[in-house]
Amino acid sequence: MDAPPGRGEVAVNGRRYRFPSEPTVVVCLDGSEPGYIEAAIARGLAPNFARLMRTGASLTALSAIPSFTNPNNLSIVTGAPPAVHGIAGNYFFDPASGEEVMMNDRRFLRAPTIPAAFHEAGARVAVVTAKDKLRALLGAGLAMGSGRAVAFSAERADRVTVAENGIGDALSFVGLPLPEVYSPALSEFVFAAGARLVESFRPDLMYLSTTDYVQHKAAPDSDLANTFYAMIDRYVGRLDALGVVLALTADHGMNDKFFPDGSPDVLYLQTWFDARLGPGAARVILPITDPYVKHHGALGSFATIYLPPGTEPVGLIAALSVTDGVSLALTRAEACRRFDLPPDRVGDIVVLSGRHKVLGTSPDRHDLSALDAPLRSHGGLEEQRVPLIVNRPVAIPEGRVLRNFDIFDVALNLVS
Ligand SMILES: [Zn+2]
After folding, report:
1. Per-residue pLDDT for 2 more than 60?
2. pLDDT by residue (tens digit) across 385-397?
3. Exposed (0-12), middle (13-18) or buried (19+): which is 297, by Cβ within 10 Å?
4. 212: CA distance to ligand 1 center in Å?
5. How close is the Cα of 289 to the center of ligand 1, in Å?
6. 66 preceded by cis ω (within 30°)?
7. What separation in Å is there between the alpha carbon of 251 and the centre of ligand 1?
């Protein structure tokens, strides 16, 4: 078992974290491929990032696999891989009930979060997310009536209550109108809320999580992306000026997933399995699936497949491995070992696709009419590398490969 935490330490999920001596702000910049910040800096649009990356720490880290939003946000706030916290996707097949369900309910979360552990130890804690789907998971374990916790989403900032969110009127507190869900303003609201919270609520620990609306639409160095990162840069400057320890990372990167004519480059796996095993015999699950499919059409680079009882995966995996666009095909056991996934939430086979390929079920089950830009998406190994930036120098032990879910360790234990 874990040794008991020392004075001024909090232990959670097998790791110890020092109690912050100054407000510590951890940010997940959703979908932030390192190239976005690099391009904004090169254009002179991100002077605060440029300065902090020079005087603080400019590192990269590897995300959890699947490189999707929920597994990584939960890894970041628990400091642990999906095998520990249980959130292996946005969506999964529950063999117990025989149903495909969203994994955004607290009952699916198997580990306490770092903010909740600090809150229990007496800290003032704030969590602000872009989308409400993450607020319930990320705010788990915070006692809202305590006066020491705030947790709300930009998406539902008009519907907060003191009992549920620790704040009664988020819109006038933040001073911005309720943002559209599909807009850069949703992420700006998160930053504006974070800055106001540091100024008035003075959290010991705060977690901010934005949305990847812009990154799904626009590549690094596009006008849309540069404008978005210039906005983020202003808040980075403002938070830094407030004297906080500021640490930023991402849940995953993002890549173009389309042909030269702009149509998405998809391997339809339900079609692939139907041709070999018969219609509907296998069940293909795309864990990227969520209620907000508008910007990715439920197409990502990670899929898991349940086979009919008695079907051997080995021959199918061999055939998948030589299929164009497949970067990895693994058995459940191999995938869980390699990526630290919870075996009971993973199918018999796991497939990852390459840099420019996504995985679908069958063409009739993806409504691509809502895609208003050529598809950019994530989920695989090619979207695993993300920035890890801190506004203070940090001492990383020689040879340590950083994960994005090391960011609380870095921000609380390793800043100089
Ligand atoms: Zn994301």
Report:
1. no
2. 999 999 999 999 9
3. buried
4. 6
5. 12
6. yes
7. 6
